Amino acid sequence: MNILKLFKGTAEEVRLNPNIGTFSWFLHRISGVLLLIYLFIHLWVLGSAQSGTAAFDARLRMVQSPLFHFLEIGLVFVIFYHMINGLSITVMDFFNLSARHKTLVTVSVTIFAVVAIIALSIMLPRALHIPSGGTHAIS
Fold first, then answer.
1. Which one, 35, 73, 94, 111, has least CB within 10 Å?
2. What domains, with CATH codes, occur in the chain?
């Protein structure tokens, strides 16, 4: 199966119907694929425990690099976007609000932005190894 055939309809849909709902749908699809990729990487790291402590520790050291800390921030963004957009779609379907999809997408994007700013303010200092202000020396 050709993987590009799966996304041929996606590109055509975005080109033919360029509105906020289409872009939301496109981002939801991309975030789902990114979450699937993360799942495989996560299982690969956890699966290394089958090869013994040394192999597991080596993989854990690899994913504790600064690059992976920034990728974790991206992962949080992808998770929150996919979750909030999925909840918006669910609300739209169950309460027959498809006529208000632009409003729901706007509310979803606003909620995502607030959550992303909060997550970024918590995770970025950790990724950059900036010590928190509340640390005290233990004597």
1. 94
2. 19-127 (1.20.1300.10)
